[in-house]
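WP5 quarterly update. Target: Carbonic anhydrase, family 3. Source organism: Shewanella woodyi. Length: 180 aa.
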Amino acid sequence: MSSSLRSYKGVTPTLHQDVYIDEACVLVGDIDLDDDSSIWPLVAARGDVNHMKIGKRTNVQDGTILHVTRKSASNPNGHPLLIGDDVTVGHKAMLHGCTVGNRILIGMGAIILDGAIVEDDVILGAGSLVPPNKVLKSGFLYVGSPAKQIRPLTEAELKFLPESAENYVRLKNEYLQESV
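Structure tokens (predicted):
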């Protein structure tokens, strides 16, 4: 597992309690993974030119790319990557210097770009593109390229968001048991 974690300028990813990191992923630099989060095969995450925070019970699925934006004269803070709690990031998604709230489902192959903000309780459809600095308001389904608000989430969908995260907590616990 340790070969998946790489230092950059003396900073190594920080893992909190009961985190699962698949040995076939690469995490570099200033990345903080909170309790019960999981990183699955072939995820590439670079916290090299800014920092990254991944919340509790959040899962980042296979083939996803996570990155940040460098600080500059025109953008003094750059864009860190901030992902909240109970987030499910689908396979082959790309999150770059954005902020993702709590209880989010990001569909497979979705792309979220610099400065974009996804508020709490959102479903982003597979293959959707969230342009730089766009805000996705809480409580809605968004799809398309560029992503457009389609409709409010149903009660069943709102209930499913934390359930999806919990399903991955159970799965990562099974994987952690296998490695004991």
